[in-house]
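Why run this: before we spend reagent on co-expression, it is cheaper to look at a predicted model of the complex and decide which construct boundaries make sense. The entries below are exactly what would go into the expression plan.
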Amino acid sequence: MDWLVTPFSSNGFMLHALIAGVLVSIACAIAGTFVILRGLAFIGDALAHGVLPGIAVAILVGFPGILGAAIGAAAMVGGITLITQRSRLSSDTAIGLLFIGMLSLGVVIVSRSNSFSGDLTRILFGEILGIGIPSILIQLAATIVIAALAIICARPFLLLSFDPEQAEVAGFSSRLYHNIMLFMIAITVIVSFQTVGTLLVFGMLIAPAGAGALMARRIEVMMLWAMLFGVLSMYFGLLISYHFNLAAGASIVIVTVAIFFIVFIMQNLRSRRAVRQQESAHG
Amino acid sequence: MDSAPYVQAKRLSIGYSNEVVVADISFELRQGEAIALIGTNGSGKSTLLKTIVGLLPPLRGEVAVFGMHPGSNPRRIAYLGQFHASGFVLPLRAVDVVRMGRFPSHGLWRRMGREDDEIVLSAMRAMGIEKLAESPLRSLSGGQQQRTYLAQVLAHQADLLILDEPAAGLDAGGRELYLQAIDNELRRGVSIVMATHDIQEEPALCNQVMLLARRVVALGTPQQVLTHDTLLETFGIVVFGDQRHVHVLEATHGHDDKERLGINKPRS
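The model came back. Tokens follow.
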């Protein structure tokens, strides 16, 4: 029992990490559900990496990294929208171009500064064990905004995931609600990078929601499963990191991916058993 | 009876960007009336439906729905498209899909009540899928999914139904229920625009038929329009009994797949 509780009860930094992690899990479960349902994994990945130059410039000039991440995400979404609306290229092409362009720009900016190596690790893999109360409050505010958007836009988001044309005919502008959905994903990425880093936030977006999709028959239930898997990943990831002295962010994401594969294998075994039972029932 | 036309098109040209698919379409549809759009794949049926619901802007001419721009009155229009993007990922039960039909009349906020549940159940009963209510959409067959989408349209309780190949994939039982439901809607005073390949049962419920072949080949009552010559002109091939009449169509976009229509006799 001590092994499970003491790290959090006797270390303030671990408790802060767990609170921030739970908030990240809730935000990522909500945004990640729509990333999975609408097939937006590529844009989620691109956003997670494309914010790098914004963060790098912000740190270079002494502004908060989160501000740079917001500007980087806005540039990404704006660029993707511009290319898809003003050309015949698919959104995948636009996302790919912006993704690689922004990532390269980030690496170029980082490579020009000698003092950046520690910051770069922090940007890429997060700093969950060094998270303070102000960051937790920002994370809390962002999670409330994300949850509020998901509740307010539940009907158009559902219609959009089902069929964008149906959403449009039902009186919900598919472009408007698609952009709100992108905004929600962008906020999640921006505020989560401090916790799990830009490289690993993508894992938190898709792995718990992907496992939830395997389990659920309803979107609300999928979201709840994703939250549960996310919180479990945070808790056990932090524990493993504490006891075995491993990188916290990476430990969390390894646990979340492991949970996905456990759910995947269990679902497959269950399906096979159900088929076998049906076959034996038919003689 | 509402005397103003529900749908009115005047010299309407439809298409995508600068590509005109069909030009110079004019027709009117009033309350309780139905029109069947018949033609080959790519003849302009779906493009016309999308223009009426406001998914595509008219290229030239005018189209008004309930006297307003298309898309201005989502509460009064239900649309069944040909393709749904939902795929196998979306965790939805059949009843959730049908409930979506109530969204336009409730907007973002208004709560759904017992009355809505009854409407949803009644729509599912009309399409014979009430026992599948809790089944995941992805576990349903193509025909059962089509019944679910039709139930969603019925649950909308709209004044105008825009249906793109509504009977596609339905078995004999499903087709019977669908025709019965359409008949009931028309009796209720609902108007219907449907795109179909059927030249017998569905047009029989309609006041008007429009034959399309990237132009309006004919427009009028089913008796006036569904003749040997107009069908041959529209489809390029018509089979009456064991006699096969072939008319080679110009190979234009969407018009190069000739359809064989196995009908026993022409409508008269």
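Chain A has a mean pLDDT of 89. Chain A has one domain: 2-272. Bring this page to Monday's planning discussion.
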